[in-house]
Amino acid sequence: MLDAIGVKSIDDLFAPVPADVRLRGDLKIAPAMSEPDLLKHLQDLACENADCGRAATFLGGGAYKHFAPSFIDQMLLRSEFYTAYTPYQPEIAQGTLQAIFEFQTMVCQLTGMDIANASMYDGSTAMTEAALMATRLTHRDRVVVARTVHPQYRQVLATYTQNLGVTIAEVGYAPDGTVDLQALARAADGAAAVVFQYPNYFGVIEDPRPIVEAAHKAGALAIATVTEPVALGLLQPPGAFGIDIVAAELQSFGIPPSFGGPYCGVIAASEKCLRQMPGRLVGMAKDTEGRTGFVLTLSTREQHIRREKATSNICTNSGLMALCASMFMAAYGRRGLPALARLNFDKAHHALGTIAAAAPGVRSHFGGPFFNEFVLGGFADVGEMQKGLFQDGFMAGVPLGPDYPELGDAMLVCVTEMNSAGQIDGLASAIAKRAATVRT
Asked: Which among 164, 268, 392, 431 is least buried, having the fewest CB atoms inside 10 angstroms?
């Protein structure tokens, strides 16, 4: 290698690096370990983390702990799935293409939309790409976003658009935790899109009808963001309300929280949006002999067309995660997903009632209808409450103060089918005990 680049020695290779900035002596790290010792060391380090498998978890806010049938992980380990990448050559990628086609089909059935793309990085980038779709479709450069949309999703949108000439206008929320409809109607005038979350970040179920009406009256597109797709097993699908684009995160569908990724975003839309949808669409076709096959029907990204014509230069197909979500949807099916959603709904409402009875000083902050998340308010110190609950064996409550200063006494609590009645009772008792201690 040195001969190939015309250098006589390693020292000559590094000669341009000034001597005073070169490393002198060995790195200050522990000596090498044997493989068994290293594995033990890594396991010990991992045990220092709190995780959803060892603590009663009541955390939500965009990452949810749901039960995934064990066969999903086993199927994902098949080498043809685990190592597959983009299906550029359909003649050798029929299995991958068919899996993506099934994914798109189930997403359309779930959301009630006409078309869906072959997945994206995650929900936040999907929402941002949906907003940019709207600017191209309407030839407008302003996007209205409800503050009830996930704060991190809104941050991703702001980061994306800061150099694209797109203006972001945020709209507040009403006392019941739903979007302020009057403010939204005023802001929608001249906008490319109105973006809201369904259910929203506070767990409150927004009524999409007046939001869609306000958007369409102003000539804007209505974009619904979904971070908890299990809710769609109980709620009417977005397509039933005339929503134009749905940007969803499918982590709930068999994908573990995993410290925030990898996840599976997706965009579903009405057919009029087809040509501006980023990513890829897989379609079914027939060859000259009449045999059914699967192909990339639409590929509007930079590898396929001129970069300046691409709808997106970052979106990708999270193929393995999309396959995971597909298997989850297929396993639960048309009857199982509504049953799962109902279980989440019932347990969350039972938990709120149990907590309210045990800790009278703690209250539900919003009165709007909710799915499996709700906001608890009335805490003297949310951070201390969260730490105390962790000491009691509960990972509970996302503090809202950092993103919503006006909600500094509140935290977001999530209850899923994975929380037992005993865990719910224990959480209520722990909150009552900690709240009483603080008040005293």
From this structure: 164
